[in-house]
Fold Alpha/beta fold hydrolase.
Amino acid sequence: MMMIRTLLAVAMVSLLAACTTIPDVPPGTAVPIQIKEQGSFAAGGTMTTAPGAFDPRKPMAPDGQTYHGDHAYAFYQIPVNVRKMPIVMWHGAGQFSKTWETTADGREGFQNIFLRRRFGVYLIDQPRRGNAGRSMVAATITPTPDEQLWFNQFRIGLWPNYFEGVQFAQDAQTRNQFFRSMTPNTGPFDMAVLSDAVAAVFDRTGPGILFTHSQGGGPGWLTAIKNAKVKAIVAFEPGSSFIFPEGEVPAPIPSAFDTVQGAAVPMAQFMALTRIPILVLYGDNIPAQAVDLPAQDSWRARLAMARLWRETVNKHGGDVTLVHLPELGIKGNTHFLMSDMNNVKIADLVAKFLADKGLD
Amino acid sequence: MMMIRTLLAVAMVSLLAACTTIPDVPPGTAVPIQIKEQGSFAAGGTMTTAPGAFDPRKPMAPDGQTYHGDHAYAFYQIPVNVRKMPIVMWHGAGQFSKTWETTADGREGFQNIFLRRRFGVYLIDQPRRGNAGRSMVAATITPTPDEQLWFNQFRIGLWPNYFEGVQFAQDAQTRNQFFRSMTPNTGPFDMAVLSDAVAAVFDRTGPGILFTHSQGGGPGWLTAIKNAKVKAIVAFEPGSSFIFPEGEVPAPIPSAFDTVQGAAVPMAQFMALTRIPILVLYGDNIPAQAVDLPAQDSWRARLAMARLWRETVNKHGGDVTLVHLPELGIKGNTHFLMSDMNNVKIADLVAKFLADKGLD
């Protein structure tokens, strides 16, 4: 009878373990993602009240009415057996949470990949974008054809040609989904507004890891300065807004697209960036020397500024790792490392960084 | 030894069943939601090309560039052991997918509730709203204070007072989240554009059930006319756009807010609405007689038109069930039945309808 009990106990324990433990599994497999909790919320923002008194018989008059805006929106999922720190994923210019969801060619994005690796995942729309569209400042939105600009700027190729070996599927359906993953600003781009709201997201998540993409990089640095709950940053191809201590801003770097300029903050604020591990990643097809194509040349200038920034942060005791992927033999990546065809390899690289820094 | 094997087999089978089958569970429990697949996509929409030739050295000029817009955006989740038909959930005026997510007071919304009941769930943002913001038509967005209008119009109360027994939490944090669950139109409201895009969503989902809220009701009827894959509609407080056969449009119904008018379509189109089961639900605090408060009176007129519409559809062989919840003794519901404090009871009522119609 003792043996029966033992056998039953062993069987039940191992089966219960199979129920409640999800091992890290590759994306796209048939293994379900077990979600302990999921939901959405607004964070941060401000509000205003129109002068006068509200009259319920004149509801279309603003008198005495309120208006809430400039918050961030977050959709979050917490898997079972979740790791200690969640990841907050922040899109770039013209984009929204879709950046991290299904890729344009229909594979799993970083949302699912990191859920499967048992991280809590928060996808945000920054203030004045997508589901956080209620802006405190007016805007006019005009449907201006601009997709060839983005095709080039995002280093998919030189329209209508794709870069040789590019990590981006070359069919019409993928292009269609990719172009439809943009959504406009509903108010002016304002780094202070954005970083205030995302700092409020971290008040809700608790200590966590911030992933930024492109234009999200600049307000991402500010968010880490504003909220010590940002415990690490992985910046995917951060754009032009690198932050230096006052008096240490390097000379602007001109390019065929624009001029990349560092921004200054007081040293006490800057030092926040030296206290967390930071990984900065850039993809392929960034020229080493100046070229007269604005899209390519803009990234040469940005990568050069990123290197100066890494040196400055590390000189002050920081822990910035900058990886230009081709130097590791990882070729063909566009501006969208997180959704490129080799995005699992990119996720592996990021996961290793998080493990090395004790953040998983 | 036989007994041991039997005991072990029984234990393993019951535990494996616990692993692989999710029973219907109440929301907010600790039971994980097992997601077999989740992701997002754009559906439908159009595109335009600017005249001229694209010059990569002048990327800011629209010449020869394309612009994709007027698609819908959908985020979907398919649970394990999924039921036959998924549910596509469509928000109302000023809202987005948030309508179906976490409630303003932090409980589970219909997204989670119906996932737990093993339905596939697709949350959409209609064209020119939220994550589907890329509009083919320009718009100016002005931050006009309007929240007391919505507080009244959504029948939470008569600002600043709440209706007695209202199914809406009365704390400041809930109000804050509720007001921040709005996002503006990024282009004109156009029922043809909206229904084209959501019909394309159903081409992707296959045969399914459409939930509409408020202003989504009108384009929802058009979607069912355009795509026979819409196999049922549950309309939560549909607004003013009821669709009648030509020659059978009833007299307009004036209210203290606006005049509710039916729209006409050819009989052949109208008949599509007679071929699917439809459930229409309205909440509490809708006056039976005309009152001079626009918010209340608008719903008296809408409910009256909904009843005329039900009679017309059913007269032509349709299957419309209209439920005014107070008649069932369900009290205090606002315009947001799906997120009210009794939303599990509302979900039960909807689930029973789907079961009665053989749709689960």
User: Anything to note?
Assistant: Residues 294-315 of chain A form the longest helix (22 residues). The radius of gyration of chain A is 22 Å.
